Amino acid sequence: MLLTIMNDDEIERLLRELPAPELPAAWRAEILAVARRAARREKPARREWPPLLLWLGHRLARNPVSAGTLAALWLLILLFRVTTPVDPQEQELLAHADFTQPVRLITVSDEIRLVEIAEATPLPRQVP
C-alpha cells in the first residue's frame, strides 16, 4: 500500500466528494423531539436585581482579588464591632456630650499635670 502525503485542501476535497450517509426518518424525528424538549427546559427564569447590586457586581467581577479583599475587610469590621466590649459609662457620656463645643485633644503628660493641679487645689467648703 502506497501512502501519499496530502495537504489540508486535498483532504477537504476528498471528504466533500464522499456521499453523505442517509439517516433513518425515525432517528431524525427522535433527535428533533429531544432538542425541542431541551430548548423548552433551558429557558432561564429572569431575575431582577437592584441597580446597586448590578453596579457593584460589574465592578467586582473585573478584579476578584479586590472583591475578596473588600469582603475580608467587611468581615474584619464586623468582627471588631461584635467583639469590642462597650462600657455603659461611655454610652452615657456620649449621650450627654455637647457636640456644639469644640473638642480639645491633650497629651497624656498634660492630662497628668491637670490631675495633679486638681488634686493640689483644695475643694471649696459647702455652706449648709
Structure characteristics:
128 residues, mainly alpha, 6 helices, 0% strand
Main beta sheet: none
Structural class: mainly alpha
Q: Which percent range describes the beta-strand content?
A: under 5%
- Mean pLDDT over the full residue set: 79
Number of helices: 6
Low-pLDDT stretches: none
Alpha-carbon Rg, integer: 40 Å
Strand tally is: 0
What's the shape?
rod-shaped
What is the share of helical residues?
55-70%
Question: What oligomeric state is this?
Answer: single chain
Termini separation comes to 131 Å
In N-to-C order, the SSE pattern is: HHHHHH
Reconstruct the topology from this structure.
Blueprint: H1 8-17, H2 25-41, H3 51-61, H4 64-83, H5 88-95, H6 108-120
Question: Would you write up a description of this structure?
Answer:
The chain has 128 residues and is mostly helical. The protein has helices spanning 8-17, 25-41, 51-61, 64-83, 88-95, 108-120. The radius of gyration is 40 Å and the shape is rod-shaped.
